[in-house]
Structures are given as structure tokens and as C-alpha cells.
Design brief:
Layout: H1 13-21, H2 25-45, H3 50-67, H4 77-94, H5 124-136, H6 140-151, H7 156-163, H8 167-185, H9 199-207, E1 208-213, H10 214-226, E2 233-238, H11 241-246, E3 251-254, H12 257-260, H13 269-278, H14 280-286, E4 292-298, H15 303-317, E5 321-328, H16 335-350, E6 354-359, H17 360-366, H18 373-398
Parallel strand pairs: 1-2, 1-4, 2-3, 4-5, 5-6
Amino acid sequence: MQFDIVRNTELTDEELIRLTQDGDESALNELMSRFSPNLWKVIIMNSRSRCDAEEIFMDVWISVWDNIKGLQNPGSLGAWLSTIAYNACKRYYNSQKYSNYEVLCSDVFILDRINQDSITYFNRTELLNAVTEAVHNLPDKLLRIAKLYYLDMWSIAEIHRELGIAVGTIKTRLMQIRKLLRKEFGVEPNIRGNMIRNHESENMQNRIKVIGVGGAGCNAVQRMVEMGMTDIQSYIVNTDLQTLDKCEYGIRIQIGGNTTQGLGSQANPEIGKKAAEEDIEKLDEIVVDTDIIVIIAGMGGGTGTGAAPVIASLAQQKGAITIGVVTCPFNFEGQRFHHRAEQGLRELRKNTDSIVVIQNQSLLNAASHQMKIHEAFSMSDKAMLHSVECLSNLYANLM
């Protein structure tokens, strides 16, 4: 494939797509200039090295050229590109072209993983050399995990699958690694949510976990972290793989892959419950060794309503204090949602020690001005955050 250097800068995206579908390479070149920055972000987030990302990047645009005739809706090009990029990254690493012992990522990427504030204390090159040396001098039992997580940028889930080590054990090892690195650098703990935290924050992360379930629960966790909830370990659990992929915060747990084929639960709590039961072992791992489990969900839908009681039951079996923080639907969401919400609440109450119910409509009625829908949901999320903060402060005072 050859690219003409002439750019059709005055054309709209839709016009460029039509020209590209007709075989105009210069139109594709202009589309590349417009969409490459966002596409690169998707690829770099799902790659293990810059070299890999560059190779995948070109493969994606070649794939676009080969398949763009099948794009029916020009307005969906951005989402279509993101999907192609994500799938290309997965295929690239599923090819098993790497041995188990290769270090796949340039050391410079460690700067994105270890205490961003450290660059104010060290020259960038000196920091890079010090971090690399510190990681490679870790005890043998920690070295493999450190290389994968810090140098190769593997996720905890990927390390779990690769090494066959329990998720909880990996997290414990990462905590040990952080303490050793902190000692190595002599850096003071930073409580603002960076990689290096103080002792109290680490202890809080171990003993309190927040689990967002379903679309509403996942969205609530995202807003909570954005609004400052950085000292509590958070998880997001959903059947919808696309929704999980869009989430920036929290450890992602997909459930019901066979039940829903990676899609939503069709607002059916029975499907949500079945999805949770399908991946009961995954869910069981995230509730171990914890004092308090806070389950966040929106009642009335499918995954949150059906899966939240299952997770709560697992938490109680592990001896954790289990608290539900849930919302009930706005009036505009319809009677069926309200009916399902009531059923979901009854099930959740059976499996929790306490439950905080936020009536979305009551919040809306109390507002002093007419709100847009997204403002109403934002206010609901803030109420959830306040509830979780109160619980964590109470626990901290009792420690």
C-alpha cells in the first residue's frame, strides 16, 4: 500500500471515508493524520513495548485499508478503529512469539509505573538506571513478578495466567516490591494516590475493598476515583467487555463470558446471577483476606442486580463485613426497573451486614434546579462516594 502525500484537509471525516472506500490512498493518509493520536493511545495502553506498539500501529492501518469498505456508519470510525486496535494487540501477544523469560519492554517505560513524583528528586537518566538496577537486584522470589509488572507492563490478570500464581499472592508480592524500592530510593511516601503510598494507605488498601458491579457500579467507581478515592483498592465487575475496556480505574473482572458472549446481561438479573456463578472462582479470589467489602451497584438492571448478591454472599463466607451501597432508579427509568430493583434489594439484604440505599429520585427532587440526566447520575455517584468515605474513615478510626 502506498500513501500520497497530498492531504484533503478541507474534507469532512465522512467524505474522506467515502473516498477511502473508493480506493483513494491520499484520503486514507489524511484520515491517518486525524485519527492516529487517539489510535496510538489505545495501542500503547495495550502494548508491552514501544517497538511492539509501532509494529501493531502499522498493522492496524493496513487492516483499515483492507476492511474499510465494510464500514457502514462513517460516524462510528473512531470506535471501529479502537476495536481493531484492541483486537490487534491481543492477537499480537496471543501469537506466543515471546518466551517466558524475555523482557519485552524498554526500561524507559518503568518511569510510567514507579512514583511519578520521583523525577523531581532525580535526574531522569539517573532515575532510570537506579530503578532498573533496583528491580534486577530484588530477591529471586520477587524478581519475576517485578520484571513482568514494572518492566514489561503486564497486568495482574496476565501475570496470574502466565505464572499460575493467585491474584492475592501477586498483589502481596507487589506490595513487598514497592516497599523495597521505596527503601532503595529513600523516597518519602506520597499520599496523593501515586504508586508509592504511606503505611496507613497500604494497610487501608489491604483491609477495605470496593467492588463496582454492573454498568452503574463500574461508572460509580470511575467517578469515585476521579473525585479522590485513591487509597482503597477498587474492582469493577461486569459482563460487558466493551464497558470494562473503557474503564480507566479499578481491577477489571469480566464474568459470564460463556453466558453473555462478552455482551451485557440484557437488563435481566437472572442472566447477571448466572454470569457471576459461571466465574465464581474469579470472584472468590477478590474477597479473601479483607476486613470490609463494599459492593456498589445500581439496582434495576441486569448485572448489578443479579451479580451483587452473589458477590456479597462470597464475602460473608470469607468472614468480611459486607456492606452494600446501591442506588434505586429515577422515575424516568420506568416501572420495570423499579420492580427489579425491589427484588434485587431483597436478595442483597440477605447477604449483607448493612446496606446503604440511595434513592436517586429523592436526590433529584431535592435539587434546587432542573438537572440534565448526566448531572443527576453524577450527583448519585457523589452520594455513593460520600458513603464509602464515611465507612473508610470509620474503619481507620477503629484501627
